[in-house]
Design a protein that fits this description.
Layout lengths: L4 E6 L3 H12 L4 E5 L5 H5 L2 H19 L14 H26 L2 E4 L2 E3 L4 E4 L2 E10 L3 E3 L13 H4 L8 E5 L3 H12 L3 E5 L16 H7 L3 E3 L2 E9 L2 E8 L4 E4 L1 E4 L3 E3 L6 H4 L3 E2 L2 E2 L12 E3 L10 H16 L13 E3 L5 E5 L2 H8 L3 E8 L13 E8 L5 E7 L3 H13 L4 H6 L21 H5 L3
Parallel strand pairs: 1-2, 1-6, 2-3, 6-18, 8-9, 8-14, 9-10
Antiparallel strand pairs: 4-5, 5-6, 7-15, 11-12, 12-13, 16-17, 19-20, 20-23, 21-22, 22-23
Helix pairs in contact: 1-4, 1-9, 3-6
């Protein structure tokens, strides 16, 4: 049978774009479909605008301390409309760059909703397309809990569509996205209340990393743990939010942001028409990203793999290399670095202390330090920086690294390769750091690549 395309990709997000470009570079006839702007959730509605908002929020802390560094006191103010216009311009620029990259690679872009008609045939608007191989890369979508009045709450996507900045923002959630928005919106001078159903923020992260909550509270965020939203009611221009649990208040706010989870965005694809297996709402794939249909594949947040943009990119490229480049390969999902672009920033890689102790018990050794950053020796102290290593005491191998403080994401990213390749605590001790850096404490000159053992005993 002659097909219209060698590969048809559904979804022009990071995973889909990476796979389409790589397959086209191998000389195959490739098309990619997208119903929204090219770039996917990360570029258009998620991590990129979230990071831009975090950058905007960081200026409030700099302005607070400007007079300490010799500048005249700067009046704090934030123009939501100006930021949103700049954000929209940046996102559109990135989206257009992705389109250009697809065109340069020879990938055809098709706009519209896509649905399977059978295992090789797709319907896009009024057009029917056939493909030898099909890649599903449709990402995920936000879900909201089923509580009375939840229709008044917005999701993270809608947050970046608001015409007016919230005066009092109530955020429901405990994950990294909820923490990002809590810190960033507080730094942008909105009043913020964070509702956390669990007993701590960032469940599943290292316990010491959860000290990001202390920084949020110090900066003015009200954090209510062991608390749930019972109902939301519209009262004129405001929202009345009834709480239960440790806090049983009724709060009046103007915006409720729900950040409690995401699910694969597969409900409208007609996967049943192609016989594609779905497990717990996600497209089921093997280590080569192949579904139960040998010519249909899936990558990214629509699968049951870790939902991170770099994972989608890596698996998209690995799929194309394997299927079209005759270069079989799989992706390791161990030691994926993660960041929380909040105020304060946090980042992590590898095992938490609790996870390590489950595996190794008393053999686990932890080395940590809290210290005042150099910036705060002149400015008003914000929060001490935390650094922590989790080590296998038997082999001396570093199993995890965790940090809260400025440049946390950049520092942990630099450790990813070393930890993945089996760096030991002795290797850290023998490495000389850069002076002065964010990882310096008192008279000890160090970076996270230097000895944390000494610091943990000389804080």
């Amino acid at each position: 049978m002659k097909f219209d395309y060698d590969l048809f990709v559904i979804g022009a997000g990071p995973g889909g774009i990476s796979a389409a470009r790589r397959a086209a570079e191998y000389g195959f006839h490739v098309a990619i479909a997208e119903r929204d702007r090219v770039g996917g959730t990360c570029v258009v509605h998620g991590c990129i605008p979230e990071k831009l908002l975090s950058y905007a929020a960081s200026f409030s802390h700099v302005l607070e301390d400007a007079d300490e560094y010799g500048w005249n006191k700067v009046n704090e103010r934030f123009d939501w409309h100006k930021f949103m216009a700049a954000k929209d311009h940046a996102i559109e620029h990135l989206s257009q760059l992705h389109i250009q990259h697809l065109q340069t690679a020879g990938v055809e872009l098709v706009k519209g909703d896509t649905k399977f008609l059978d295992a090789h045939t797709l319907d896009i608007g009024e057009r029917r397309i056939t493909a030898d191989k099909i890649l599903i890369a449709v990402g995920g979508e936000a879900v909201k809990p089923n509580i009375p009045g939840i229709e008044y709450a917005i999701t993270s996507r809608q947050m970046f569509e608001l015409k007016q900045q919230p005066e009092h923002l109530l955020i429901v959630g405990s994950n990294q996205i909820a923490i990002k928005f809590a810190g960033s919106m507080n730094g942008s001078l909105s009043k913020v209340t964070l509702i956390v159903a669990e007993d701590c923020v960032l469940p599943g992260y290292d316990e010491d990393l959860r000290t990001v909550r202390d920084g949020l509270i110090k900066n003015g965020v009200r954090v209510l743990c062991n608390t749930s939203v019972e109902k939301i009611e519209r009262v004129q221009a405001d929202l009345s939010v009834s709480l239960s649990g440790d806090s049983q208040d009724t709060l009046t706010v103007d915006t409720v942001l729900c950040v409690t989870g995401r699910v694969p965005n597969v409900s409208s694809l007609g996967l049943e028409n192609a016989g594609v297996e779905v497990t717990q709402g996600a497209v089921a794939v093997d280590e080569s990203s192949c579904t139960n249909q040998p010519h249909i594949f899936a990558v990214g947040d629509c699968t049951n793999r870790p939902h991170w943009t770099p994972v989608a990119i890596a698996t998209g490229r690995a799929f194309a290399d394997t299927v079209f480049g005759n270069k079989p390969g799989t992706i390791s999902y161990e030691f994926i670095p993660k960041a929380v672009s909040s105020q304060p920033e946090a980042a992590t890689i590898g095992l938490t202390e609790a996870q390590a102790r489950e595996k190794l018990g008393e053999a686990v050794r932890c080395y940590s330090s809290k210290f005042q950053p150099l910036f705060d020796t002149i400015a008003e102290p914000e929060q001490k920086t935390l650094m922590k290593l989790v080590v296998d005491g038997n082999s001396d191998r570093v199993l995890g690294a965790h940090m809260v403080g400025e440049y946390a994401a950049e520092i942990i990213q630099c450790l990813a390769l070393a930890i993945k390749k089996g760096v030991t605590k002795a290797d850290f001790n023998e490495t000389i750091g850069i002076h002065p850096t964010a990882a310096e404490s008192s008279q000890y000159v160090f970076s996270l690549l230097a000895s944390l053992y000494v610091l943990s005993h000389n804080e």
